[in-house]
Amino acid sequence: MSIKVGFIGTGGIANAHMRCLSEIPEAEMVAFCDIVEEKAQDAAEKHNGKAFTDHKAISTPWRWTPCTSACRHMRTPTRS
After folding, report:
1. Domains and CATH numbers, the chain
2. Distance between the two ends of the chain, CA-based, in angstroms?
3. How far apart are CA 19 and CA 22, in angstroms?
4. Contact, 74 vs 54, CB < 8 A?
């Protein structure tokens, strides 16, 4: 079973989250949204997802809070 993840904003810290999520087999990055279309396209191509420029078009946004230990917490996804 995979967890589908979408990003609103693909620059800065989002790249660190993408890198961490790429190490979790159950995480499937499917949507990448950015107001700079080229950034969204680059992330989508790198992670085999779809690019968007309108955040309303995706229904699975990844919510994040900047912190230095984000990767450690992301490596143990919760399941309901």
Report:
1. 3-74 (3.40.50.720)
2. 12
3. 5
4. no
Give the predicted TM-score (pTM) of the model. 0.73
How far, CA to CA in Å, does 79 sit from each of 3, 6, 47? 9, 17, 23
pLDDT digits (tens, 9 = 90+) for 3-49: 888 898 999 889 999 999 999 999 999 999 999 999 999 999 999 99
pLDDT tens track for 44-77: 999 999 999 998 888 755 555 444 444 444 444 4
Q: Dihedral, CA atoms, 37, 39, 44, 47, nearest 10 degrees?
A: 180
Number of other residues whose CB lies within 10 A of the CB of residue 32: 28
Q: Is 78 helix (H, G, I), strand (E, B) or coil?
A: coil
**Tokens (6 digits) for 65:** 């809070």
